[in-house]
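Quick question: what would this complex look like in 3D?
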Amino acid sequence: MTDAVPDSPAPDLAVVIPVWNDAEGLNRLLEQISQLDAVSQVVIVDDASDTPADPATMGWTADRLGADLIFARNAQQRGAGYARNRGLKKVTANRVIFFDSDDRFTPEFAYLMAELPRDGFDFCVFAHADSRIAQAGGWGPLAGDDRLWERAGVFGALSELPAEKVPELIQISAYPWNKVYRTGFLREAGICCTEIMVHNDIELHWLGFLRAQRILVSDRVAAIHVVQRNGTRLTNRSGAERLEMFRALDPVAKEIAKAGPIFTVPFAKFVMALFHWALGQLAPQHHESFKTKIRTFLARHLDAEAFSRIAAAEPDLAERINAHLAWQPCEMTA
Amino acid sequence: MTETLPAALAQQSLEMLRASTASGKIAPEAEIVPGVRFVPDPDAGMRGRFSSPAGRLLELEITHERPARWCGLHIRLGMEELFGLGVVGLAARFGAPRALAVAPCLRSGTGTGFSDCFFQKQVAALPRPLMHLDALETDGRHETLPSTAPWREIVLFLPTNSFRLDLHDLRIFAA
């Protein structure tokens, strides 16, 4: 009555970990990886931590880890995007995940890797839990992502994401650590992180969805995103480095324009939510400059046809876009 | 709460499912692992497939050609004697793309057939699965739960229409 299922083959997954001043988190993550039996290679790129986060000084060896261990250190801080790209170049495994030193795998991750094919897919996006939701007694992502998962209607431990669901699920937060990529896909499609201090993962996420031929999806909650309120991690940054997000958004916007009208509204929703969130994060002295950049970005990438589509589908969103387009910096209107 | 030996048989079957990555057609009355079987209404023309993802129990896709009177997933319990126990309970996490309810009961064999004692709450299967917890007290308050029975099962009464249901986890305990 049952179909035969072969035994799980040896692990074939690289974990690329950018780390900056978080030796403790890295040590904890390596401890977890050593128990997963799902990882064949770990590539750590220290982004010029004050004290090098060298796994060897923590007593980590390939034997203890149960995986090849590669360590590189940037001479100066270049951001997680550069660190991830540097790490990706060293990957020899057929599958790769970018993971942060302060995040955690769940037991579901090993099950996911046991089922994930080695080939025949471009990437697999999986569900995650956010520590803020977990602290409140829940288990899952923040409400916005939760709604997108539900609307996409993807279900089950592992299935193929139908093409018509891509415009929905592409809107989830652009995290790098909730996807297992086929290494060859990233290389063949020329996809990497933007080498900026924050929002470096937008290109990786959006271009991945846009260029993939076959996306797998899993409702397994396979990772926990740990957010320390008021911590020093990049999520909490409020400086001018956020203004660099447009270096990531511009290439995505160009590709969206080529990808067809079905992506116009999802991308507009994403960028407007990102702008709103970033304004809340950004120190007040950068607001004017940020709004100027938003206006320039919207004017550059939204033609009348695209704006009409947005207005028809999401009038409120169009109104918010219009407010940005109509806005003038103080020095120009005085 | 300490799990007692009587529920171990069911836990063993469920553990086999968790460890299994089997898949296939659902055959009425045939065990998919020892102690776990589907019992559909024979007049309803049930067709279905199951798969057992690693670490999870079952993903089910079931259709009925005609309206069904029942569709049950039976898990052998082997807990003939309730003496010395206070509760028999279950913890479950089920998911479904369209919300549906599963009615669990503790079925006890009798001299003439069986007797069903339903748990007070049905298990809600939702797109984002939630933990469900319920227990039956075994102090004699339920007429349909005899203290001694030749056999017992947990029966999950599944929807009688066509549905997709994922059983992420199920734990049965007695103490």
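Answer marked as accepted. The interface with chain B takes residues 1-3, 5, 107-108, 110-111, 114-115, 140, 146, 149-150, 153, 155-158, 219 of chain A (CB under 8 Å).
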